[in-house]
Design a protein that fits this description.
The complex is a heterodimer of chains A (393) and B (318). Chain A is of the alpha/beta class and 393 residues long. Chain A has 3 domains: 93 residues; 40 residues, no CATH class; 171 residues, 3-Layer(aba) Sandwich (Rossmann fold). Chain A is 50% helix and 12% strand. Chain A is built from 17 helices and 9 strands. In chain A, strands 6-5-4-7-8-9 form a 6-stranded mixed sheet. In chain A, strands 1-3-2 form a 3-stranded antiparallel sheet. In chain A, α16 links the parallel β8 and β9. In chain A, α7 runs antiparallel to α13. The longest helix of chain A is centred in the N-terminal third of the chain and has 25 residues. Chain B has 318 residues and is α/β, with parallel strands linked by helices. In chain B, the strands form 3 sheets. Chain B has a 5-stranded parallel sheet with strand order 2-5-8-1-9. A two-stranded antiparallel ribbon of chain B has the order 3-4. The longest helix of chain B is centred in the last third of the chain and has 17 residues. The radius of gyration of chain B is 26 Å and the shape is elongated. The chains are: A alpha/beta (393), B alpha/beta (318). At the A-B interface, α2, α3, β1, α10 and α14 of A face α2, α5, α6, α9 and β9 of B.
Chain lengths: 393, 318
């Protein structure tokens, strides 16, 4: 191994310059920061404009061109420092990407992603050999399945539920946007089109073109409780989150027990088993204690402003067993209620006829929810689909 | 005209805009590479200000497009002046340039004149230029220099507009069907801002130089305050910045931005304050914090504590 250390490339004419850039781009991609070839060309151009001997300037330039998300900034800076230190190609090759990734908290997740990527490649072969489950349920068994509580299902039935769930039709209510689109009998006049159409009649307004306001499906945001008391439902609920993520285009999913984790990205994987596996990997407080108030608070502070726009419908899925501060829960539910179009609380316990919402958590939260619905079997999910479809203003 | 990153930083400073090094680099590169500058950050950290300062620095026009949901071609790019067009038609009918449409069908009409009359109707005279067209058209220039195009709060616009914008930004040309394609001789300097109430699509961001503007640290915010409100007392400035910085360390639903700090400073100066006192802070909190929950949380006890700490550290400094 070389012991001498060469200075970093300082001019654009240096032979290894482009190669180094490409290596750097590869490092970034390894960290899940997407870098396109065009961006690299842009960077080459940018670097010819600035004083490359000033390291901070080079970094700022690279950052401005290559990064386009705030959450990548920290990781980028680490990668840049690392790269600058690794002056020789060999040295860089020896760097353990995993170690770098674990240095930042956000890196933890990224690390798992990289790991999972590798594992996925490993067992792809195995997957192809896996036999498909035969779909042979009769009508009556399907009927029975629909009303069976998720918590009492056998492994085989849970598999069937998975199939069923993907057949459910989700069409959440629409919202009138402020964009106007041409419509034959719209309620608004489209002057531009009217004018153009009437020129052929010498400007006499014989035909009036009309527009109406475009409608758009409301986004759905789900916050699911995965604490110990929800354990029996967690798996099915994740499947549920997976199927709405894929059935609709604007879904944001979060899970919480002691802290809140965003799982939207993991659920977007095509394969349901892979998606759930990744989600499981990203969450480190499975079946922990419950602090609903704090989770909702984190959501309100860090995410609500970014995802609650455009009249979102928020689903909170929890049994309401809360070990946190009920006062905080009430305050945060109130805040959440005010920042979304409709707040729906889904409770698996509501399926039992003897259940009454008496826990402190539920009592604190109920006044601030629009709907309080069961979510313990397939019928209740079908009901939910109806409620979502009717959640008009 | 601005040969280096340092010169950009210096020019910003003379316009009383205190920027850190990475923002100066981004601005420098945006000017050099002719790339849109995409500024993201919380409300009130001075994103819009960058565009305003740039137009002063470069001595050129600032064209601003405020985004909102449903923003469409007729408000962002161009619109025909229908009222004038209709008047023109009546006028042409009256002077016999075109046949009256109500006249009997066999009335003599010259097809060619009719055609050219229609062309006149969709000519430059009747075109209303909206911000994007102004920015690309040579008329937007001032002193022969390309204007600054500020696309403010893009996160408020919808995805349809974003897609349209992507098209405009990639080749700086706009097609008006009746007139033809208008191409920018000198492309405008584009500044896009977003408060991140929604994620902007990566495709658009990739065309831009991205910069995240954070809340400033003590020194930087103090500098900003001194630059913007130079006649306020040094002591009050220190206390104000100290107080705001302390608030940002706490747990608030919405942190005060730099804009709020400046507003608060003006409020305190208007009230002839020389230093922070608990009562005045309590009474003027509404300038800093815009949520009732936040105000209730800070008012009273917390204010008292922060002010006392500030006083103590001031005493130590002296």
């Amino acid at each position: 191994m070389h012991s001498t250390v060469h200075p970093p490339p300082t001019t654009a004419t240096g032979g290894n310059f482009l190669q180094n850039l490409l290596l750097f781009a590869r490092l970034l991609r390894g960290l899940n920061i997407p870098v396109t070839p065009t961006q690299i060309l842009d960077l080459v151009e940018a670097l010819t404009q600035i004083d490359l001997r000033v390291r901070a300037q080079a970094r700022d330039a690279a950052r401005a061109v290559l990064v386009n998300r705030q959450e990548h900034l920290e990781l980028f800076d680490e990668a840049f420092d690392l790269f600058w230190r690794a002056r020789e190609r060999q040295e860089l090759a020896r760097f353990n990407l995993g170690e770098l990734l674990q240095q930042t908290p956000q890196g933890e997740i990224q690390y798992r992603l990289v790991q999972a990527n590798r594992e996925q490649k490993d067992d792809r072969q195995y997957l192809e050999q896996e036999p498909h489950v035969e779909k042979i349920y009769t009508y009556s068994s399907a009927e029975a399945l629909r009303s069976r509580d998720f918590a009492t299902m056998t492994e085989y039935e849970l598999q069937q539920v998975k199939e069923f769930m993907q057949q459910l039709l989700w069409s959440p209510a629409e919202r009138k946007t402020r964009r106007r689109v041409p419509a034959a009998n719209g309620d608004l006049l489209d002057l531009r089109r009217s004018m153009r159409q009437n020129v052929r009649y010498g400007g006499e307004p014989l035909v009036l073109a009309r527009r109406r306001r475009k409608t758009e499906r409301r986004p759905i945001i789900a916050l699911a409780d995965i604490s110990g008391s929800m354990d029996r439902y967690s798996r099915v609920l994740l499947q549920f989150l997976f199927s709405i993520t894929h059935a609709l285009d604007r879904v944001e999913a979060f899970v919480f027990s002691t802290r809140l984790t965003r799982i939207t990205r993991h659920l977007r994987r095509r394969d349901i088993d892979k998606a759930l596996e990744r989600t499981a990997g990203a969450v480190d407080d499975w079946a922990g204690g419950t602090r609903i108030g704090e989770a909702v608070r984190t959501f309100n502070f860090d995410w609500a402003r970014r995802v609650c726009g455009q009249g979102a419908i928020v689903l909170v899925i929890s049994d309401g067993w809360d070990r946190g501060d009920p006062q905080m829960l009430e305050q945060e539910m109130d805040r959440l209620h005010r920042s979304c179009h409709r707040l729906i609380w889904l409770n698996p316990l509501l399926g039992s006829p003897s259940y009454e919402p008496l826990t402190r958590g539920i009592k604190a939260a109920l006044p601030h929810t629009d709907d309080f619905l069961p979510v313990h079997n397939l019928i209740s999910l079908e009901q939910l689909a109806n409620v979502l479809a009717e959640a008009q203003s | 005209m601005l040969p280096s990153v340092e010169s950009v930083a210096e020019a910003l400073r003379t316009k009383a805009y205190i920027a850190d090094h990475s923002l100066a680099t981004s601005i420098f590169l945006a000017l050099r590479l002719n790339r849109p500058l995409f500024l993201e950050g919380e409300a009130g950290v001075g994103k819009t200000e960058v565009a305003k300062i740039l137009s002063q620095m470069l001595d050129t026009r600032l064209i601003r497009l405020q985004c909102y949901e449903g923003l469409d071609v007729s408000t962002a790019v161009y619109e025909w002046n229908y009222a004038r067009q209709m008047l023109q038609i009546r006028l042409m009918e009256a002077t016999g340039q075109v046949a009256d449409s109500r006249a009997p069908a066999d009335a003599p009409s010259d097809g060619e004149t009719q055609q050219s009359a229609i062309q006149d109707l969709f000519s430059d005279t009747f075109l209303l230029r909206r911000p994007l067209l102004q920015a690309i058209d040579s008329r937007g220039q001032q002193n022969g220099k390309a204007p600054i195009l500020l696309i403010d709060e893009l996160d408020r616009a919808d995805e349809e507009f974003e897609a349209f914008l992507l098209e405009v930004l990639s080749d700086f040309q706009i097609t008006v069907p009746e007139i033809g394609t208008i191409r920018a001789a000198v492309p405008p300097v584009v500044v896009i801002t977003s408060n991140r109430t929604r994620e902007i699509h990566d495709a658009l961001k990739r065309r831009c130089l991205y910069h995240w503007i954070d809340y400033p640290g003590f020194e930087k915010e103090y500098e900003i305050l001194r630059a913007k409100v130079p006649d306020a007392s040094e002591r009050l400035s220190r206390e104000v910045v100290g107080f705001v910085q302390e608030l940002r360390r706490g747990e608030l639903y919405k942190f005060p931005g730099v804009a709020e700090t400046l507003d608060w400073m003006s409020a305190l100066t208007a009230l002839d304050q020389e230093e922070l006192t608990e009562n005045v802070v309590d009474e003027t909190l509404g300038v800093l914090l815009k949520y009732r929950d936040d105000i209730e949380k800070v008012q009273g006890q917390t204010v008292r504590e922060i002010v006392q700490v500030l006083r103590k550290s001031a005493a130590v400094a002296e």
